[in-house]
Design a protein that fits this description.
Low-confidence stretches: 1-24
CATH class: Alpha Beta
Shape: elongated
Distance between the termini: 23 Å
Length: 93
Amino acid sequence: MFTALAMAAAILAEPAGNIPPARAEARQGRATVECRVAKTGRLTQCVLLSESPIGAGVGAFALKLAAAYRVPPHDRRIRNGKVIIPLKFKLPD
């Protein structure tokens, strides 16, 4: 699962001071994205499959993070040139 990478990327990409209050109130969330895997391992054409809580911006943030991922070419999670990535987010207390 990509959870540890998502947390590290979230901290680097979006410092706590930059999270809008509406999003910060949610404190945690989940999103699932599906992306095509290019030959370089870069993820492209990502689409949001689900997000919770709806309207808190978790899905948009997950899509933003997916752009930073690289997947090894022979990763067993790749199916028909695509990968499904479940992400969990939790703001520090």
